[in-house]
Design brief:
With 681 residues, the protein is of the alpha/beta class. The chain contains 17 helices and 28 strands. The chain is elongated.
Length: 681
């Protein structure tokens, strides 16, 4: 077959003579005119671009026009393979030179080029060998490539072979583009590749951040020395899990004072709420071995029964994470101090516990006083108070307590003070159980009927407030033997009977308030045997009358005497003038008559003098002007007459001294109004 016949059988037809085959896939018109002026910017060992261009054109021309297309394609593939190997070796050499493995530019090129391996054994080796020889290397020196470079070369060769076998000239074109891009980047520094303006902006931002961090740190370090942060403790067990481990231990410790396991385990009881608070909510996290566990538990049971309470500003409320002795309204004493006060009785008390056998663990700091006044404590009085059987003072005044005192509360046999005033309590029948009680106030409640017989057992009482209830009966049948009584307030009740002579035997009395009752008879003369008496009041008691006892004059400490709105008759006893400390005298609205004693002028401390609504006659004594502290004087609705002494009028204007503010007289008395008298009636 002739050459023309072979071309006729070829799919492509004969290539044009004297130039590249434009039907060949390896032709790249964009690279038909490489730039002039020699090679790329890369270093030693590289061939120039003109050589690359010639090789590219030559690789696309037929090897032998007289041979078949398949033969020419095979030969061209072999040629492209050799050319690619040469390119790879040249690029690797340039990379090593740039990274310091080869000789520097302009230096000894032989050392760097010695690393180049001439793998091309074909006709194309001549140019490469001459180039290498010009650098002073010689032919076929074998380098000590490192494994990574060998792997990269092998991979690239494989890619080339795959491209040559499958894509022909198209693979060669892609490789030439990659090689050209690599050659353009070779030898360029970071400053050449990065925009200088962008680089400057980045450097400025870094500088600003450094300044912003450094200056505040420097300023802080000038004021305060650097303190290294504390090394954190290693992780501990979950608080909830840790407390769950002691739950049943605390349960066992408190069940005997909480009414048993059934009560303590019932989630609807205050005891159960107190238990859970102790275990999971209390900031002190008490364990079962703490000496004040029982005491703290009892207090929280009381709180959950009758709370929440009105908080007191600036005070530590119940439930605060401090010792309960620091809570508002609680006062504690050390065991030793309490032992000394009770003259040894505390040992017996702590040993025996409550009278019914219930005993709590006694702490070193014992609660001896609870003051919950005006805290809106509501409901019935919690019997759990009795668990604090060493309690000495309990003040629940002005709250919202109702009903009767619970029986266990009477087990506080060491109680000395009990204030229950201003609630809605209805029963204190067993109050006598408080055999050491010294101060009792149940005023302003809803008590009715006779005073309980158990009162007779309160022989240690010093103060007794029963006013503003509905008590009835013969109260002094019970109280007449209270020799230690100092203050007695029975006002605003419905007590009956007479005032006994035994009042004179209550020699410690300082204050007696008996008004607004149903008492009858007279004030016993024995009242004069109460030398400490300072206040005596029996008003609005229409069945009490008779003469005012002259024995009042024996009471040198008497300061306050109120006998108004009763049925006293006779005359004012001049002996009252002996009560030099008397500053208040009110006998208004009685049946007193006669003249006003001139001796009253000696009452220099008198501030209020009430003689109105009586049958006094004659004039107002001028001696009353000696009452230098007088502020109010009432003479109206009497039979007094005459002229008001000028000395008394002068009491209306005494410079910076006490001024007589009110001076009311009968209209029959001549008196300048308002310069002297304020009005007449």
């Amino acid at each position: 077959m002739s050459g023309r016949d072979r071309y006729a059988n070829s799919a492509r037809g004969p290539p044009p003579r004297g130039g590249p085959n434009y039907n060949d896939r390896g032709y790249n018109p964009s690279r038909s005119a490489p730039p002039r002026g020699g090679g790329a910017r890369g270093g030693g060992g590289r061939s120039n671009n003109n050589d690359d261009y010639s090789a590219s054109v030559a690789s696309s021309a037929p090897i032998d026009p007289n041979m078949p297309d398949w033969w020419n394609a095979k030969k061209k593939a072999e040629r492209r393979q050799r050319e690619e190997e040469r390119r790879i070796n040249v690029r690797e050499e340039n990379e090593r030179t740039k990274m310091g493995y080869g000789a520097p530019r302009g230096g000894d090129g032989g050392r760097g080029n010695a690393r180049v391996v001439a793998v091309n054994n074909g006709a194309g080796d001549d140019r490469y060998s001459r180039k290498a020889g010009a650098e002073g290397v010689g032919a076929r020196q074998v380098s000590d490539f490192d494994d990574t470079k060998d792997k990269n070369s092998a991979l690239r060769k494989k890619m080339f072979m795959d491209g040559g076998a499958g894509g022909g000239a198209g693979g060669d074109d892609r490789l030439r583009k990659i090689a050209t891009a690599d050659e353009e980047l070779e030898g360029r520094s970071l400053m050449d590749l990065v925009d200088r303006g962008t680089l400057m902006v980045g450097l400025c931002l870094i500088l600003i951040v450094v300044i912003a961090v450094t200056i505040p740190v420097a300023l802080i370090s000038e004021d305060e020395p650097y303190v290294a942060p504390a090394v954190p403790d290693p992780p501990s067990a979950s608080p909830t899990m840790a407390r769950q481990q002691v739950y049943w231990d605390i349960f066992d410790r408190v069940q005997r004072i909480a009414g048993g396991p059934d009560v303590l385990g019932d989630p609807n009881t205050a005891q159960n709420r107190a238990l859970n608070w102790i275990v999971f909510e209390d900031g002190m996290e008490l364990g079962p071995g703490k000496d004040h566990l029982h005491q703290r538990f009892v207090l929280m049971v009381i709180y959950f029964i009758s709370g929440p309470w009105t908080p007191v500003e600036g005070r530590l409320e119940w439930g605060s994470p401090v010792h309960e002795c620091e809570w508002e309204g609680i006062t504690c004493k050390d065991v030793e101090e309490l032992e000394a006060e009770l003259e040894g009785k505390i040992s017996e008390l702590l040993e025996s516990g409550r009278e019914d056998g219930v005993k709590i663990d006694v702490p070193q700091r014992i609660i001896n006083r609870l003051e919950l006044r005006q805290r809106l404590v509501s409901g019935e009085v919690p019997g759990e108070f009795s668990l604090l059987y060493y309690l000495q003072h309990l003040d629940l005044e002005n709250n919202q307590l109702v009903g009767a005192l619970p029986s266990p509360l009477y087990k506080l046999f060491n109680l000395q003070t009990l204030f229950l005033e201003q609630n809605q309590l209805t029963n204190i029948d067993a109050v006598g159980e408080y055999r050491y009680l010294e101060h009792l106030s149940v005023s302003k409640n809803a008590f009715q009927g006779p005073l309980p017989e158990s009162f007779k057992q309160l022989k240690y009482l010093k103060t007794l407030y029963l006013h503003t209830n509905a008590f009835t009966g013969q109260v002094f049948d019970i109280l007449k033997d209270f020799k230690k009584l100092e203050l007695l307030d029975l006002a605003f009740n419905k007590f009956e009977g007479t005032l006994p002579a035994e009042l004179g035997e209550m020699s410690n009395l300082t204050s007696v308030f008996l008004g607004h009752n149903e008492f009858r008879g007279t004030i016993p003369a024995e009242i004069g045997r109460c030398p400490n008496l300072k206040e005596f009041q029996i008003d609005a008691s229409h069945k009490i009358g008779g003469p005012i006892p002259t024995e009042f004059g024996k009471l040198a400490n008497l300061e306050f005497l109120k006998l108004d709105t009763c049925a006293f008759n006779g005359t004012l006893p001049p002996e009252l003038a002996e009560c030099q400390k008397l500053y208040f005298l009110d006998v208004n609205s009685n049946d007193l008559g006669g003249r006003i004693p001139t001796e009253f002028g000696k009452l220099g401390n008198m501030r209020t003098l009430g003689l109105a609504n009586n049958d006094f006659i004659g004039g107002i004594p001028a001696e009353l002007s000696q009452m230098a502290q007088l502020e109010k004087a009432y003479f109206q609705n009497t039979d007094l007459d005459g002229v008001m002494p000028q000395e008394i009028c002068n009491l209306r204007d005494r410079g910076n001294q006490t001024v007589l503010e009110e001076l009311i007289v009968p209209c029959d008395v001549e008196c300048e109004i308002p310069t002297c008298c304020t009005r007449c009636s």
